[in-house]
Amino acid sequence: MAVAVVALAATGCGESSSGSKSSDSSSGSYSGKGIGLAYDIGGKGDQSFNDAAYAGFQKAEKEFKIGGRDIEPQDGESDADKVQRLEQLAKAGYNPVIGVGFVYGPAVQQVAAKFPKTTFGIIDDDKAKAKNVADMVFSEEQSSYLAGVAAAKASKKNHIGFIGGVDIPLIHKFEAGYVQGAKSVDPKIKIESQYLTQTAQEGGFSSPDKGKDAASGQIEAGADVLYHAAGLSGQGVISEAASNKVWAIGVDSDQYKQSALAAYKDYILGSALKNVGGAVYNLVKSVYEGKPLTGVVRGSLSNDGVGFADTNPKYKAMTDVVEAVNKAEQDIIGGKVTVKTS
User: How far is CA 111 from CA 98, 104, 135, 243, in A?
Assistant: First the structure.
């Protein structure tokens, strides 16, 4: 086997890291250069959405012994920059090429048409329709429902909060599920709700200071459990919750396990999981095996595409909360509960 060589380089459309490894496909059918991954706003290190994608990237690289290149976004970039980034990966021979986040929708649609022999994936968007595109989406409302149940059961004040990064339909799904789950426990529960920005360009997913300020306001209003769906901004929510000794609920990744959040983990009740890493891994696996996934691929509670992390021992000790969340999960999977998306 070739020794992995990892390099950091600045390109015209973002910072990237690349690894070169020889392919070891038993069937000999995989001829790509490896995995191409383009990050969403906030980039690698957000301890949430992008890092979940990177975990799947790393797992696939290691298991299939293929190379990979991941590229960071830049602040204030245009759609043309995203097109350039994806074209750069496809031209270099990476397969699949994956855009992390709905913002890559138009770019994937455009570039996939130019490279019909390359499989493209996009996370959180189902509008990129092409024979060589996999739209990897999730039932975020289901995991958020479980977060709402946990929050309502854990709250001592019957008063909880939701902080969304950007006021868009995708994040509305998180809020809708959370509110429905909380009200299934107590229809009269008080719920604070706030979006940090109207557009992603304003920093709603990439500004911990905005998350901190929003959390401070909700805690001052009386909320003692805060759930965020705000990417990197969520770090501010979690740190402020810990400073005030109230519960925070993470999102996408198991944020209790994130090293950058270790100082606050005792106050991370749990996390509403979205298996972005699994989606990335599964798409790479399908291409590697010569049977690429295409069309809409949805992760839900029934296929472990979403869930609720119970890593915190303090959460596990709250048996009434655990039982309520487990029952809610089974009710959703069994069809007794249908979770709203708006």
Answer: 11, 10, 14, 46
In the prediction, which pLDDT does 24 show?
39
CA distance 208 to 196: 10
> Which pLDDT band holds residue 28 (cuts at 50, 70, 90)?
low
Helical axes 169-185 vs 319-333, angle rounded to 10°: 120
Q: Are 316 and 154 in contact (CB under 8 A)?
A: no
Alpha-carbon span 157 to 167, nearest angstrom:
27
Domains with residue ranges and CATH for the chain: 5-138+276-303 (3.40.50.2300), 140-274+312-333 (3.40.50.2300)
Q: SS3 of 148, please? A: helix
Comparing CA positions, the residue from 166, 199, 192, 167 lying closest to residue 178 is 192
Confidence of residue 324 (pLDDT cuts 50, 70, 90): very high
What average pLDDT does the structure give for the chain?
91
Q: How confident is the model at residue 26 (pLDDT cuts 50, 70, 90)?
A: very low
Neighbour count for residue 319 (Cβ, 10 Å): 8
